[in-house]
């Protein structure tokens, strides 16, 4: 049985554990892993044309940096471990974008790391792992 796993990856230890878990599962099943990195981005509709141009330039710089610093090293590290590895970097709200990636890529499962932070911020605002557990379009595994 093969399958496609989408893994939310932000470079943290928690996301690295989740990725290693997904790669091992995908390798055992003859499947693949889509490593997804999401950059938070909110559109501002009230910017001037010059400000929009500058913002677009910064966005492209952020995408390039995320690819070089976050994604390229982890794709290299995970390649050759028995699962096909793909990657994507997108802008938006993390939970919404990860769900969209799962739908668009035909994922069978999502995997996300949990950092164990039980501080007031995560209780008030929620966590990505908690939100995905509630709204993921496919089964979601949360790796501690």
Report on this structure.
The chain has five helices and five strands. It is α/β, with parallel strands linked by helices and 144 residues long. The protein has one domain: 3-Layer(aba) Sandwich (Rossmann fold), CATH 3.40.50. A five-stranded parallel β-sheet has the order 3-2-1-4-5, with helices on both faces. Helix 1 links the parallel strand 1 (4-8) and strand 2. The longest helix has 30 residues, at 49-78. It is globular, with a radius of gyration of 16 Å. Residues 120-125 have low confidence and may be disordered.
State the main characteristics.
single chain; 144 residues; alpha/beta; Rossmann fold; five-stranded parallel beta sheet; 5 helices; globular
